[in-house]
Automatic annotation (TrEMBL):
Pfam families: TetR_C_16. It comes from the Bacteria. Coiled coil: none annotated. This is Tetracyclin repressor-like C-terminal domain-containing protein. SUPFAM superfamilies: Tetracyclin repressor-like, C-terminal domain. It comes from Streptomyces sp. 900116325. Residues 15-86 form the Tetracyclin repressor-like C-terminal domain.
Amino acid sequence: MFVRHDAGRGRVRTAPRVLRDTFGPRMQDQVLGNAADQAHTQDAALAVARLMGVAVDRYVIKAEPLTTMTRDELVRVVAPVVQYYLTGTPHTGL
């Protein structure tokens, strides 16, 4: 497991903790905070999980073919799943 020493605070932080501290509040406010009820909160959390997974695979792990896909290709593949989580209907316009 990735471990990072946070010199400014004098503590050791693991990768999950860094991700949680960095992205957690932002995701809560911008995505999950807009959900009208528990069902929508669950759907929004699934959309965020999908997007975070793609980001980690593409930029951290550098998994193929995600790394070499263009932005448009990536959007074309990922957008229908994210839209389905958020609206219940797949996006078919790409």
